[in-house]
Specification:
By secondary structure, the protein is an alpha/beta fold. Helices cover 33% and strands 14% of the residues.
Amino acid sequence: MKNKSVGIVKTEYCTFAQPPHELPLECGRALGPVTLAYETYGELNNEKSNAILVCHALSGDAHAAGRYHQTDKNSGWWDNMIGPQKALDTAKYFVICSNVIGGCRGSTGPASIDPKTNKPYALEFPLITIADMVNAQKHLIDYLGIKKLLSVIGGSMGGMQALQWAASYPEYVASLIPIATALKHSSQQIAFDEVGRQAIMADPLWNNGDYYGKSNPERGLSVARMIGHITYMSDTSMEEKFSRRLREKNYSFKFETDFEVEGYLRYRGENFVKRFDANSYLYITKAMDYFDLSEDKLFPHGGSIGARFLVISFKSDWLYPSYQSQEIARQLKIRGVDATYCEINSTYGHDAFLLEAEEEARLVTHFLNKTYRILT
């Protein structure tokens, strides 16, 4: 895979659902106005038939590829998959990535100003679902003038959004690539999310969500991220990366960071609080827990899906184990959908969808090439 980049990029914004035409939500409330932060890479062709929507995971955002300036040290979260001659080839495709509603990276969420009070929404922000996120994305796609997406792709929560596109707007997608995801959360997955939420809400500085303009509940959010990060790795990857290596030669015999893995988790937690909002973490994890397209829900009203599917899982992923992806493929096959299932033999755990670029790219490249040929 060539080491090429989309170069310097910028975040753009789309605002819609101005009152009295607010976005209706599954909870029974409505939200408006709504702003989505998004980035695009590549060029939309004259037929507007080469658009691919990339959906991000829990802690992701719209910045999926490229850099913001020449000295920017951090490229987008999926830069190894998006760019010229990469899996999502920007010389061929027009790639879109937007930050979900409920987020904190430019899209409307709990930290946004409520126009009714001129204060941050905080916990007055309505509970949202994955379907609400996708309905908001549909407004963005309409705004861009795209009638049908060539593909919707994403890992983890991004895979949930891809599946929701199939359920909510099957006629608007030609193909879907859900990666390391599930039709619904298991009790174990809900349990991990709840522990993270409780860590945040136990922080005295959380103040029932009313901390904007005050001290942020950094400790609680940091612990939530540490818990989450453990689930993203595998036993093998943690052993290879850390084993029982000490930071110093001997034990401190104090409650300090004796082991390298302890220091790593604290580092991850401390960096996460610099870019993420604690309330957004609560809202987004709850949306993931509410998500359920099991049984007949993927095919509302007994309908079917004409889109092609590539379902990918990773052997060492114990947070979203392969049996959940296999169930997606089984449901699709039962309905006669053109679906391919692939399990990649990786030791990276759930993080493999971000790290296992070579094998993942090979599968995605072949699948998209065939889909594009079929359509053109």
